[in-house]
Amino acid sequence: MKYFKRFLSYALPYKWMGIISIFLNVMYALFSALSFLTLIPMLNVLFGDSEKIHTKPLFSSYTEIDKEYLENYLNYLITVNTENFGPESTLTYMVISVVVVFFMKNLFAYFAGLFMVFLKNSVLKDLRNEIYQKIISLPVSFFSAKRKGDIISRATGDVGTINETFLNLSIVIIREPLNIIFTLIFMVNLSIELSLFVFTFIPLSGWIISLISKKIKSQSAVLFKQSGVMLSIIEETITGLKVVKGFNAEGFFGSKYGAFNSKVKNLSNRLAQRNALASPTSEFLGIATIALLLWFGGRMVLIDESLKAGTFIAFMGLAYNILTPAKAIAKASNAVKIGNAAAERVIEILDTKNPLEDTETSIELKTFENEICFKNISFKYDDEYVLKNFSLTIPKGKKIALVGQSGSGKSTLANLITRFWDVNEGEICIDGINIKDLTTHSLRKQMGIVTQDSILFNDSISNNISLGIDSPSHDKIVAAAKVANAHEFIMDQPKQYESPVGDGGGMLSGGQKQRIAIARAVMKNPPIMILDEATSALDTESEKLVQDAIENMMKDKTSLVIAHRLSTIQNADLIVVMKKGLIVEQGSHEELLAMNGTYSNLVNLQQLEG
Question: Which of 1.10.10.10, 1.20.1560.10, 3.40.190.10, 1.20.190.20 is the CATH number of 4-350?
């Protein structure tokens, strides 16, 4: 019950469905108990045990209607009908009344279940939306330490488990106790002595079931975690399928997946053993109690003759009627433990604090007017600093290039200026305002990003170019594609701009994907462009087309270009040479060559490689 209230709050917007379902469940519980009471007059007619009453009982007030009055009035009706129309007519009426009551019981059960399904599906929709919105709002750093498959498992399987267990519990805690209470009330009215046996069964059964289900929560948590690992293996395998096949690693990954699959199977079996034991255990305890009732009640009917046969059979039906809700409560106890295990994993994501979240004092950056300043910034991903006391000013309209060996901190600067991460020391300012004081949405609205890995989504070319833009104009999409040198190859596609790109853009070449990514940045038309090694993975011909597209895109823009191939940035206004998070040289292409230092060596090395 630890997380029950929290997740039940998701049902509040749909409380009218819940109220209707509760009312229908109450009626179901009432008619469930009544269905066995209706057997008594029918059985009494069959056994000839009905008391013959020829005088209609006097009605004085509603407050005096009790068990004796109702029995006398029913016996009067049976007596009159039997004498006037015969016993067959009376039996027919009794059978019809039994059928009607059982029909009403099941009708209420059907509609109660139907409204609860509507409620569960609505809550599930809201839960899925909330966790998805939370996932996409969290910083990139959150996902660096998490397996994607595990996060997917939490957002899908665990959310579904919570919805099933906690909302099913809401039915159980309303309907089944009421079912037991109504049944016990009728049982006590029929026979106090026999009811004592049932009172001993319920707490005994609950105690035994609690012993069985003690380890279910911990086992469920481990099972959910291992299932997440399995999803991660599938996700990694599909993403890197070319590498897996290229290195003949199918056997390795097959064995790895098989090992985790076996773990999940064994855990599932152990959990199922405990889960499955609850229901037969409670049923066996119920049958044992009924066996005692048969012995004790049989003596009351046959030997003591203190109980009518019809009443005893109906009492037995009521006693058995307790077994179903008792089993449901036993299962619910186990389900809550499973639900709590799933809830812990989901809540870990929902309650994760976003260190980059906007505050009430965050400012909207409406325009970019002057400059971007890196002021003595230092940053580390783990323990070692990637950037140390780094300072750089990028005036508006200038093209600044960052070069250096891998690991020198170039891409980190792109991640920091877009605020995917925050600096540990120092500050990054745009027009004199610390970007930490700006809303992330308005900050990123001023920037267009093209990375080495051009990320495309499994959608049409048109939708990939217009990503994030509401009601985009087709003419503007075409114009952006032309700037990116993408229009020609797009027109050669089967459906042109509506052609699918495939998963991750797999239906396009590397150069085509990159030009679509550039067209996306052009379509956004921000004042600041960030290019992170946008041409490093391309062949010479594709690089020329992409480079031309980049030059078109960067006209009249402020640009930060992270370059691997130095030939692409020779016309930059300023080239900054980095090494181990520090600036070792800066200047124009000609100035840096004249220094005959690090930059000159890099140029010579690339000329030799070429």
Answer: 1.20.1560.10
